[in-house]
Amino acid sequence: MLKNDLFLRALRGETVERPPVWMMRQAGRYLPDFMKLREQYDFFTRCRTPELATEITVMPIRQIGPDAAILFSDILVVPQAMNIEVEMKPGVGPWLPQPIRSAADVEKVIVPEIQQTLGYVMEAIKMTKRELDNEVPLIGFAGSPWTILCYAVQGQGSKNFDKAKRFCFTQPQAAHLLLQKITDTTIAYLKEKVRAGVDAVQIFDSWGGMLSPEDYPTFSWQYIQQIIDALKDEIPVIAFAKGCWYALEDMAISGASAIGVDWTCAPETARKLTGGNITLQGNFDPTRLYSPPAEIRNRVHQMIDAFGKDRYVVNLGHGILPDIPVENALAFVNAVKEYKTP
Amino acid sequence: MLKNDLFLRALRGETVERPPVWMMRQAGRYLPDFMKLREQYDFFTRCRTPELATEITVMPIRQIGPDAAILFSDILVVPQAMNIEVEMKPGVGPWLPQPIRSAADVEKVIVPEIQQTLGYVMEAIKMTKRELDNEVPLIGFAGSPWTILCYAVQGQGSKNFDKAKRFCFTQPQAAHLLLQKITDTTIAYLKEKVRAGVDAVQIFDSWGGMLSPEDYPTFSWQYIQQIIDALKDEIPVIAFAKGCWYALEDMAISGASAIGVDWTCAPETARKLTGGNITLQGNFDPTRLYSPPAEIRNRVHQMIDAFGKDRYVVNLGHGILPDIPVENALAFVNAVKEYKTP
Fold it and tell me: pTM for this structure?
């Protein structure tokens, strides 16, 4: 059925001829054709219009050639569906006019009916699957409950998410109620995505690393674990928590099919912390794509040698940056395709 | 001589009745009296006027009672002395009108004569030492060369310092020339501080954690090691690199008297990574000071139990945040003073 199932085979831990490759945020601002669409349509219009989401999702498959597609969308469509207003301000990023700061605010947050509120995502998945015509698998994703809470409470991006953490540490009951509502919504949302046709799902805990090893299980991991438990028998789940090297050991025994690793954890360390038996995904420093293509190639080959070619998905350690030259992104993907076991 | 030498004894690894405590950024915006001075004098005026720097440095000693003072100043006075213009923009933070982007820019950077350019810091040290009257030791500090480069090239704070890293990865020769100039200046600067009377120095590598474990030794650690080598026979050196848990093993054998640890590395892990024989400093999550005072107290006691009372300096895992209630900062310091070995 799938013409290229390398990615799914790596998630199952099978022996492969070379590891699969994709890039977080591969459908995005480093592509000139994406920039043209960006001039015409604002951010959430692109997310909400299945034709546009499909076009953007498929664009890197045609132009860069990774082994998996990831649906163009945003983690913040989930809080939007939950009755939390989210805007995307040019030059600022996510911006919430009415951030959550009290138990009363949490009360107003709903666990929505998914088809009614996020049906457009399911439409985009079906359209993308048709467009991909079984060329490569399609990944669906969601933010972790903690990362969604970070935005919902802070109201915008932040270097330390101090307001989000203050909310959790001074009003833990309200915080846990909010986290559970996000978790319940996310489980229903991802199950709908599975029904719509995605081949794997990834949970992005972009701000997990703001929490200490002591607070991480309480405010983030236990909710991700609920999501994994609910999904793992239906579809492969990838958990990626930026800055959470300290949680890799727990993540490895969670039932997830693969664990994402950021660029601050060396491949050997990641293998050691996760016990050596689970598929890992990562972890090229996104700013290392500024290096000349020949150097990118060498570094990718070293990275594959360090992770080992099996139980491994080549990726960046975080999203690709907007000003990376297309040829450098290509050099990254092609280096993986050219890889030969030493 | 010193009435309270607990801090210096901990740096020497001696057995102590309880660990010493101080807080990064303890002289700062959470103190109402600091805010009054802030309304009257702009940031660099406060740094450059020895009377003001002294008053601000001594303020937390009188009001909060830590076991060490740290001179009020900023890591960016060093690039200023090197002919790099640095402003402090309200609401933005550090801002450089002409960031360094080329080898030609690096050429214009000077290694300055210290007394001529930074004599005001030495005046502030002498004045503070008189004012402290040997009550507690005084810490002097500098930014790491990498962290200074981050600001000098990026031109302002950043969530990923992409421009700084691009500069290093595409123009490594120019980057290393700049790093060496900053290193030479920093060594001369810290030696002058020692002559002026500080009792210990701390190197802040605030943005070390932006680099991968592979790039860290090249672009950051080798320069910090030069500084430690040049200073360690004259004075105790503390190295603090935020986000650099992966470098703790190397840091432990560097000749530094103590290693700072941020809040994302558990005490037991930090002890394990550093071999158990070096003094560690840290690592209370700064946002955990939002917790109620009784909870702060319990968590501080647990932290001391986990690090062990000897070869340990209680501190935060990063600077104190501006909106922490004074009573919570007091609860933190007092919890250490009340500590009894279990």
Answer: 0.97
